[in-house]
Amino acid sequence: MKNHLAGTKIDASVCTVVDEATKELFKKLLRDFEENKSKAMDDECFEVESDGNGDVKSVFNKGKQKTMNQALKDREPVTRALCRLIYGEALPFNLVKSPLWKEALRLIGEYGKGLKLPSYHEARVTYLKKEVECVEKGLNEYKEEWKKMGCTLMSDGWTDGKQRSITNFLVNSPSGTVFVKSIDTSSFAKDANKLFEMLNSIVEEIGEENVVQVVTDSASTYVLAGLKLEQERPRLYWSPCSAHLIDLMLQDIGGGKTFKYTLDKARKVTVYIYRHCVLLSMFRRFTGGQELTRAGLTQFATSFLTLKRFQELKHPIRQLFASNEWAESTFASKDEGKLVERIILVDVNFWKAIKYCLSCVVPIFKVLRLMDGNVKPTMGYIYEAMDRAKEQIKVNFHGVESRYKPIWDKIDLRWNMQLHRPLHVAGYFLNPRMYDRPTMVTIHEQLVKFNESIGMFGISAAVLMRKKMQPAKWWSSYGDECLELQHLAIRVLSLTCSATGYERNWSTFDHIHSKKRNRLEQQRPRNLNKVPNVKDKAKSQLVDLDDEDEEEGDDIGFHETTVVEDEDDDDHFIPEV
To answer: Which residues form the HAT C-terminal dimerisation domain (predicted)?
Structure first.
């Protein structure tokens, strides 16, 4: 039975019902049993005693197997100690999901008793140096990929706790994103020439032959610096961060009277509910514990996610304000409470306006989620994603031009002015997923083969895998007959479009420069800056293991009605008008 529940396949079939924790528990019981059995045999001893009559007595020690209750009891103090560490040092709960955490505890368990814990000096100096050496050794693998597939240099600015303008530089390629360096740009953040010199020096450091594009935010000084960099180095392209610009696009759309009216009323309701603990408790009972607010990628995105929550929780919210519990509460008799009640129960236009707003922005918000992802290169998708988003908006308004055209105009203004970049067009052209119709004008013999699915481009496996593989991997597998075009396609389709998928991690760097570490010499913070690459690599390896059974590329979802399929429950809803 134990072998059955542990899934060892020894003298029993594998149980498919029990969870992993139970399996591990029974595996431990079996290991303990074998160890105790061996120990009992090793320790078994015989004492020969004579009572004068020739009788011999054998005395031996017997091992005892731990029961399940004993195993659970042994785990209790260890688990409590680990959780107490998390609580006492205010560590994030996500720590327990970290592959580094799991690996460390696994090795501690295998070591057993007598482990000497790392000293303050070892953590601060000895093993920090070793970790940096390990990271730098691992960077060589990335650098080899940069030579083959090209890379994107990304800059991402943020402000630390001391109000300093810090710019972090990262290099992105299909294998992942690597932190390069962090520079205090407080003294020249508004100087385009200084920013150009900074970007130029880092391109030189990485190798101009490896850098295909440089991505920065769309601030005017960075735009000037990026254009100057293109003039200085014609082989590379500068691109504004797509996620930043799409967020600005959302703000343009949200600047109309209807949006301001809707967001203002939604804000009044939200603030009122969350300002009163008793009312918030009532709200959670009616909604089954669901919240009305949810953080988005940006402040503007958060506002529209809140509108989406209003739409999803419309019925329980209305039930709350129509209930006897509300009517009998002190809130119902106050002016502010009456105002909120009218918004929810009487103001029909409020709910219609929510539908209208979501119909306008959810397709664009999905593009933002696509661009902000840091798992797969997005260069081959942005062009088509924007087209699909516009078409979805048109569908949401049932093809009535007077309703969808004003939204299209605001999208086109940002798109044509800043987002419609040469690399985006090239990415669309070279993405086999977008190549179901060979209608583009050919400019080269190899493009003719690709366009008309001649040779390896037309074999059944290549056609089948168009929507299964990432575009760059598809070209690597099926583009061997056109080496020059294959080289170009791989370098373009391996690129990212956004730097914002990594900016949420910069609180780590703020801690590095905090008072707790203010006695560190300059080299140690630079070493600490490099160490997060270990975490990122471990996370990417974990994602690969978790996703190995999934078909590549399916999460983009361009073959569906909506723009992007996302497993998060934030943005699958597109309302009808």
So the answer is: 464-523
How many residues are recorded in the chain? 577
In this structure, is the dihedral angle defined by the CA atoms of residues 55, 61, 63 and 67, taken in order, positive or negative? positive
157 lies in a domain? Answer: yes
Q: Are 454 and 448 in contact (CB under 8 A)?
A: yes
Angle at the Cα of 528 (from 522 to 529), degrees rounded to 5?
90
Sheet holding 211-216, edge to edge: 176-184, 165-173, 151-159, 211-216, 237-240
Domain's final residue, options 88, 103, 121 = 88
pLDDT digits (tens, 9 = 90+) for 353-406: 999 999 998 898 888 877 665 555 555 567 778 888 899 999 999 999 999 999
Q: Which residues form the domain of 52?
A: 2-88
The torsion angles phi and psi of 410, rounded to 5 degrees, stand at -70, -35
Q: List, for residues 403-455, the tens digit of each pLDDT value.
A: 999 999 988 888 776 555 555 445 444 445 444 333 334 335 666 677 667 77
Q: What is this structure's pTM?
A: 0.54
Contacts 24+ apart (CB under 8 A), 436-439: 436/466
Residue 152: phi, psi to the nearest 5? Answer: -115, 125
Sign of the Cα torsion 459, 465, 470, 471 reads: positive
Quick one: average pLDDT of 194-223? 89
How many CB atoms within 10 Å of residue 506? 18
Distance of CA 261 to the CA centre of its chain: 33
Kindly state whether residues 224 and 170 are assigned to the same domain.
Answer: yes
